[in-house]
Design goal:
Elements: E1 2-3, H1 9-17, E2 24-25, H2 30-88, H3 93-104, E3 111-117, E4 123-131, E5 138-141, H4 149-161
Parallel strand pairs: 1-2
Antiparallel strand pairs: 3-4, 4-5
Length: about 180
């Protein structure tokens, strides 16, 4: 606001309530006007710069999320391609089971078990695959061997029901 009477508090209060950000007294002194305009231009430019930086940060976060989603999709597709190759690679059941075991452990879990149903509807238990940290990372052993009682019960329940069971990372074997 440009005013001849900017010493009146009532007028100043009303002007600020209406959106004034500063008062310039009349007559206008060019140096004071230039200094005040420079401050407001600088504030405007800083606000625009902060807005651009916020937009850049948002764009970077969105790009990172999109890249992560694309990497996950690529990993899933690569896994499915390897699984398809493993399933179609041999007509020998034992070789196919071995290949699938190498894919599943440790990518999808630390332990897996495959139960196949023969033509006479009798389940045929095949070896479980466990990540052992060795050179191949996978070992084959019969179901129940070296399993404690609670883990053996989980394996038996999964074999009987055909449903998956995930153990929490804290090792609690009672949780479904």
């Amino acid at each position: 606001f440009i005013t001849a009477d900017f010493q009146d508090d009532a007028h100043s209060r009303r002007g600020y309530l209406l959106g004034a950000v500063d008062y310039i007294g009349s007559p206008v002194i060019p140096e004071i006007l230039r200094a005040k305009v420079r401050v407001f231009v600088d504030l405007f430019l800083l606000a625009r710069q902060a807005e651009r930086q916020a937009q850049q940060h948002l764009a970077l976060a969105e790009e990172k999320a999109a890249r992560l989603a694309a990497e996950r999709a690529s990993q899933r597709l690569a896994f499915l391609a390897r699984a398809s190759a493993a399933l179609a690679g041999s007509l020998d059941v034992d070789a196919t089971v071995q290949e699938v075991g190498h894919l599943v452990v440790p990518q999808l879990g630390d332990v897996s078990m495959l139960v196949m149903t023969a033509t006479d509807d009798e389940p045929r238990r095949l070896p479980q695959f466990a990540h052992d940290g060795g050179t191949t990372g996978v070992s084959t052993r019969p179901i129940g061997e070296a399993l404690d009682v609670s883990l053996r019960a989980i394996v038996e329940r999964v074999a009987a029901t055909g449903t998956q069971h995930r153990l929490p990372s804290n090792g609690d074997r009672t949780a479904p």
